[in-house]
Amino acid sequence: QRASIARKASSSAQANSFHDSVFNHNSVLKKTAEMGISESEFNSAVTACQYARPGRGIYQFFAKETGDFSREEQAMFLAQLIHESAGFQYKEEIAYAGNNHHNAYQDNVGLPGKTYHGRGYIQLTWGANYKACSEDLGMGDYLLRNPEVVATNTELAVQVSVWYWRSRVRPQIRSQPNCFGATTKAINGAIECSNGFNQQAYNRYQKYLKVASALNIRNKARENGCYN
Q1: How far is residue 103's CA from residue 49's CA, in Å, rounded to a whole number?
Q2: Are residues 177 and 76 both part of a single domain?
Q3: Which of 41, 65, 72, 84 does the annotation list as catalytic?
């Protein structure tokens, strides 16, 4: 009888836990829909950049992880995600996809036999960044030991992108508010922002303008902060 009671209690606790999880998840989506980007707007922004409508799960993870972003910041972040991933088609640097035997992005933090090329919608590179991201996400050194999982897990691909934005991009936004180029500089500045006009950086801003228009952002960010 005690075992039966225990099973019922366990079942009830699991049901309550599941209910709370669903409630919290739906609350996040509702809050984002009310204050941030709705799923319809998200899809419109992606298709405005000439890409196919993304899978439903991507928006859900985006909404969950960016609940504290303003619409203006969400627009800049989304534009960079779209550019980096070709409209959420890729979660891994194309040049190294599936190749775990190259020597790129080697540092003194990465582990032997592992590669730390770009993975995620904003591509995470270098062992030091995989380690820092993993620790900040409460995963210990899991991503350092298993970097390849970022390219196979949509939620992780979003999470590492948000981590990079918060830790590397936001400080640039604070020092250069409303300058989209500053976000590009924080993501790929060494290549796109160090030698005058750069077509890729320009293309990023053009995508941002399309995203901002799709989201009806009135105070659009300026192009400044990268090569100008």
Answers
A1: 34
A2: yes
A3: 84
pLDDT score recorded for residue 39: 96
Q: Comparing 162 with 7, which gets the higher pLDDT?
A: 162
73 catalytically annotated:
no
Three-state secondary structure of the chain? CHHHHHHHHHHHHHHHHHHHHHHHHHHHHHHHHHHCCCHHHHHHHHHHCCCCCCCHHHHHHHHHHCCCCCHHHHHHHHHHHHHHHCCCCCCECHHHCCCCCCCCCCCCCCCCCCCCCCECCCCECCHHHHHHHHHHCCCCCHHHHCHHHHHCCHHHHHHHHHHHHHHHHHHHHHHCCCEHHHHHHHHHHHHHCCCCCCHHHHHHHHHHHHHHHHCCCCCCCECCCCCC
Per residue in 189-204, pLDDT (tens digit) is: 999 999 999 999 999 9
State whether 160 and 201 are in the same domain. Answer: yes
Whether residue 186 is contained in a domain is answered as yes
Sign, Cα dihedral of 206, 207, 210, 213? negative
Instruction: State whether 168 and 201 are in the same domain.
Output: yes
One domain, residues 7 and 116: no
Residue 34 is predicted with a pLDDT of: 52
pLDDT band at residue 8 using 50, 70 and 90 as cut-offs = very low
Q: Is the same domain home to 117 and 64?
A: yes
